[in-house]
Amino acid sequence: MQIYLNGRFTSRDDATISVNDRGFLFGDGIYEVIRIINGRLFRLDAHLRRMDRSLGGLEIPFTSQQRAGLPAIMGKLISDNKLQKGEGTIYLQITRGAALPRTHAYPHDNTPPTVLVMASPFVPDKETLEKGGQGITVTDIRWSRCDLKTVNLLPNIMAAQQEKKQNAKGVLMVRDGYITEGYKNNVFAVFDGTLWTYPDSPYILSGITRDVVFEIAEQEGIPVKLHPVDQKQILNADEVMLTGTITDIHPIVSIDGQRIGSGRPGPVTKTLQKGLRHRMDTE
Ligand code: PDD
Fold first, then answer.
1. Cβ proximity of 187 and 198 under 8 Å
2. How far is the CA of 25 from the centre of ligand 1 (A)?
3. Ligand 1 contact, 163 CB (< 6 A)
């Protein structure tokens, strides 16, 4: 596999990163995951805007010239890795770079950031998309800047490990009694035809797929309520779903062993799935 690292295209096996890299030492970096469909990058501009926000939040210096170069780098990786047909993902990570000595405070602004871009094939989990998954709740133990897409993902990977151990397909994180989001996706619930989701806040990552869901809902006349849903209330939802770049729209048919709605993917979920697929295939 060919990847891009700090100005060079190289094979993944040959790429190396300094032991002084602050991404390695402090988790001092941000990332984005972008869907590739038949060689096209779905909602690239929205991902780059969110990247800007994360970089700005951490004050990582990244020049407009470097930013302007990203689409061409991604395009080359798509063709070098033969991803012009079918599904794939771009993984983009930018850290504050390698700096000595190891000090917590940010190093001088002239430290070049480490820029890594990789393109890989991706296989959507068709069975879960069609049949839905059994969800579990876990306590949201993350910090108060979940709106920045940083590589500090320990609470997320611990939640994913719970999911794996319990043989579940979907995690809903709970902060102060309310469902915030998943460890790699946002959560929506349907009550009487209205879609509810956690409002924009430092406690969630505002998903690009979440924004697409808002667009489809508007087009289809599905009302949306930006309001937290509590952990008990969600068990009475007619439908629950997770949304994200590598999740698409994944129905949740039970939570902690309790059936949601009919126990099958519901009509609002199916409408949104269709709308997302249509956009991914045609944009
Ligand atoms: N995760 N919430 C969290 C905590 C996420 O990590 C993600 C994305 C989302 C959904 O955002 P989007 O729709 O823009 O993908 C919500 C990526 C895909 C990941 O960590 O792999």
1. yes
2. 23
3. no
* CA gap 28, 150 in Å, rounded: 8
What global pTM score does this model have?
0.97
CA torsion sign, 150 to 154 to 160 to 164? positive
Predicted pLDDT at 144: 98
131 has catalytic annotation: no
- Strands (E) in the chain, as ranges, are 2-5, 8-11, 29-37, 40-41, 87-95, 114-121, 133-139, 171-175, 178-179, 186-191, 194-197, 224-226, 229-230, 239-244, 248-255, 258-259
Measured distance CA(77)–CA(54) in Å, rounded: 23
Task: Out of 82, 126, 149, 169, pick the active-site residue.
Answer: 149
Atom of ligand 1 nearest to the CA of 205: 2
- Could you please report the per-residue DSSP string of 135-204? EEEEE----S-TTS-BS--HHHHHHHHHHHHTT-S-EEEEETTEE---SSSEEEEEETTEEEEPPSSTTS
Rounded CA-CA distance 207/12 in Å is 28
State whether the beta carbon of 248 lies less than 6 angstroms from ligand 1: no
- C-alpha separations of 206 from 46, 50, 54, 65, 170 in Å: 11, 9, 11, 26, 18
Signed CA dihedral, 55, 56, 62, 64: sign only:
positive
Q: Which residue out of 245, 276, 280 has the highest number of ligand 1 atoms within 8 Å of its CB and is therefore the one to mutate?
A: 245
Cβ proximity of 23 and 151 under 8 Å: yes
Residues 192-227: tens digit of each pLDDT:
999 999 999 999 999 999 999 999 999 999 999 999
